[in-house]
Write a structure and sequence with these properties.
The complex is a heterodimer of chains A (112) and B (112). Chain A has strands spanning 4-5, 10-14, 19-25, 32-38, 45-51, 56-59, 62-67, 72-77, 86-93, 101-102, 106-111. Chain A is mostly beta strands and 112 residues long. In chain A, strands 2, 4, 5, 9, 10 and 11 form a six-stranded mixed beta sheet that branches. Chain A has a five-stranded antiparallel beta sheet with strand order 1-3-8-7-6, with no helix packed on it. The radius of gyration of chain A is 13 Å and the shape is globular. Helix content of chain B is 0%, strand content 51%. In chain B, the strands form two sheets. In chain B, strands 2, 4, 5, 6, 9, 10 and 11 form a seven-stranded mixed beta sheet that branches. Chain B has a four-stranded antiparallel beta sheet with strand order 1-3-8-7, with no helix packed on it. The termini of chain B are far apart. Classes of the chains: A mainly beta (112), B mainly beta (112). The A-B interface holds A 4, 32, 34, 36, 41-46, 49, 51, 89, 91, 93, 96-105 and B 4, 6, 31, 33, 35, 40-45, 48, 56, 58, 90, 92, 94, 96-106.
């Protein structure tokens, strides 16, 4: 039973356009959500997070939106760059410092 | 400030053997978590250690065990290796109560 779902295994976007990665979750106890980026042969790198008391968090080109009633979050990357090509994981936890439940990942390809 | 480092980076073991993987946490971080990432999947939580005590465990059998040392470094031990244990093993460190965790580059374990 997947508690965190990323239904798009892959996504291709043109350089300079917007990338939108989606994530759905089922556990209403999740209180904190994160996005990690992973390049081959490297560990996941923290990108951006959001707590359930917010519906939006921005950091430079990255914005995460949370719709708690729909149990849905999305990561927007604007503008997309070729260096953004990686696998993106959505993760959730029930409280700060607790373990994360990860989705299966979405492979983003940004085409020059 | 050094990041999270794991050793070895790659390892090949025979079914039935035992393996120990090592992790040095990021400076100042007192909590270490271990994750298993099978091919094409997101990381799965194995367990977490805080101040040398196990502080949560995922759905993994007892042959997966761990240790945390006074300097907050950690080991993951797996006994009686099975073919399905072949995966990337990731260590993540964080300061207890802080929301984000920072990952090492992982150890790729192959069981033959």
């Amino acid at each position: 039973d997947q508690q965190v779902k990323q239904n798009s295994p892959s996504l291709s976007v043109q350089e300079g356009r917007i990338s939108i990665l989606n994530c759905d979750y089922t556990n209403s106890m999740f209180d904190y959500f994160l996005w990690y980026k992973k390049y081959p042969a490297e560990g996941p790198t923290f990108l951006i997070s959001i707590s359930s008391i917010k519906d939006k968090n921005e950091d430079g080109r990255f914005t995460v939106f949370l719709n708690k009633s729909a149990k849905h979050l999305s990561l927007h990357i604007v503008p997309s760059q070729p260096g953004d090509s990686a696998v993106y994981f959505c993760a959730a936890s029930a409280r700060y410092g607790q373990n994360f439940v990860f989705g299966p990942g979405t492979r983003l390809s940004v085409l020059p | 400030e050094t990041g999270v480092t794991q050793s070895p980076t790659h390892l090949i073991k025979t079914r039935g053997q035992q393996v120990t993987l090592r992790c040095s946490s990021q400076s100042g971080h007192n909590t270490v978590s271990w994750y298993q990432q099978a091919l094409g999947q997101g990381p799965q939580f194995i367990f977490q250690y805080y101040r040398e005590e196990e502080n949560g465990r995922g759905n993994f059998p007892p042959r997966f065990s761990g240790l945390q040392f006074p300097n907050y470094s950690s080991e993951l031990n797996v006994n009686a290796l099975e073919l399905d244990d072949s995966a990337l093993y990731l260590c993540a460190s964080q300061f207890q109560g802080a929301p984000e965790a920072f990952f090492g580059q992982g150890t790729r374990l192959t069981v033959v």
